[in-house]
Fold Cytochrome C.
Amino acid sequence: MKKHLILSQLAICASMALVGVSAQAADEKGSAQAGQGKVWLCIGCHSIPDYRADYPFVYKVPMIGGQNAAYIASALTAYKKGERKHPTMRSIAASLSDQDMADIGEYYAAQTASSPKNPLK
């Protein structure tokens, strides 16, 4: 009985922590214009059609142009926290602030097939 009580309290605490993180991430208002100057590392892999990164394992690199801004910021946060495991993405995300992630998300969300900058996304 005591074990179940402790587990339920831990679950409640974890839920509250996740709500706080989500609220914090939602507070950041991104700017596609500001993001344009922050995606120089992203373009090296994410703009190559059918690119596969091969360190330490083979990963198919997704095209992220047009993706939802909040999803991109959330994914970068997960890499920064180590919840997602790709080593290159983790090291890049570790150098980004919450504002940087929001800006990058807005930049990629604004991309279309006809976007003059990084048209391949």
